[in-house]
């Protein structure tokens, strides 16, 4: 059975790793109010994809992801510079970074598509994701980046937690909040790059936000939230892949996001911590004597 469905198992492994990493890193992005940054980074990876294709001369996933990570990190530095040296609000800075890098990426894709020898390169698939061409070597690269992101998250769990919940307190205590913020944005960039082959640049932010937001309805403890978000992200990736295999014309990336959205709806309704349906009822209080 494994040999018969080898390609499906490869895609399933890749999307599950993507969902796991995005779910865990997304928790800190949501708690730190950096959710929109994932969207900006997703758009900012397009110029890097074009650059990676030019360097490799072919559609090589390691080069494409390396270029995407490079421009993603460049956009992080640009966003940090805007925040530090200007009086613009955070949302304005994100909007500037998103639009400028995305415009550069669209221009790059258009120029490559017009090259006679490029054959359009298939790079436009990174807009919405395309898992059909995923190889075992690609999954190995994805697994390596996932281990790096999850390892850094586990090693610096305390620092990320303090800054995510109370950056002002951490700053007063002498913590390097700026460096920790940059590290968090680096982790978000890695998660975004991992999500490009599956869900694409335009939808990858949803894979960061939805599992973390869904997990928040089930618990008030960060450790539990990280585990739940990772499982929800992994489950969404696996379920979306399975459904897209059963429906051959359905694109894998959007189906993965819809699977995560379905989990979010269930969490909003039945989550133990914050869901609309209350699992426990408070005992009636006794009337006090006047």
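^ Assign residues to that structure.
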């Amino acid at each position: 059975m494994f040999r018969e469905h080898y390609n499906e198992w490869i895609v399933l492994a890749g999307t599950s790793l993507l969902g796991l990493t995005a779910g865990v890193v997304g928790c800190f992005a949501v708690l730190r109010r950096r959710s929109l940054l994932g969207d900006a980074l997703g758009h900012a990876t397009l110029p890097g994809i074009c650059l990676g294709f030019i360097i490799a001369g072919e559609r090589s996933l390691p080069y494409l992801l390396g270029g995407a990570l490079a421009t993603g990190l460049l956009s992080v530095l640009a966003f940090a510079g805007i925040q530090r040296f200007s009086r613009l609000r955070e949302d304005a800075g994100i909007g500037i970074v998103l639009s400028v890098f995305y415009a550069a990426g669209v221009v790059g894709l258009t120029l490559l598509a017009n090259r006679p020898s490029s054959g359009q390169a298939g790079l436009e698939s990174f807009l919405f994701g395309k898992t059909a061409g995923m190889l075992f070597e690609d999954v190995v690269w994805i697994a390596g980046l996932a281990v790096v992101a999850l390892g850094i998250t586990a090693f610096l769990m305390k620092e990320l937690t303090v800054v995510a919940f109370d950056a002002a307190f951490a700053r007063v205590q002498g913590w390097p909040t700026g460096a920790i913020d940059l590290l968090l944005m680096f982790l978000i960039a890695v998660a975004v790059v991992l999500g490009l082959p599956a869900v694409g640049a335009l939808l990858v932010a949803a894979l960061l936000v939805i599992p973390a937001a869904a997990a928040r309805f089930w618990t008030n403890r960060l450790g539990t939230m990280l585990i739940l978000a990772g499982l929800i992200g992994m489950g969404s990736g696996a379920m979306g892949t399975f459904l897209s295999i059963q429906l051959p014309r359905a694109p894998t990336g959007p189906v993965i996001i819809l699977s995560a959205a379905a989990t979010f709806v269930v969490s909003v309704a039945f989550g133990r911590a914050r869901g609309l349906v209350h699992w426990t009822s408070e005992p009636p209080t006794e009337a006090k004597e006047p």
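The domain at 6-269 is CATH 1.10.3470.10 (ABC transporter involved in vitamin B12 uptake, BtuC).
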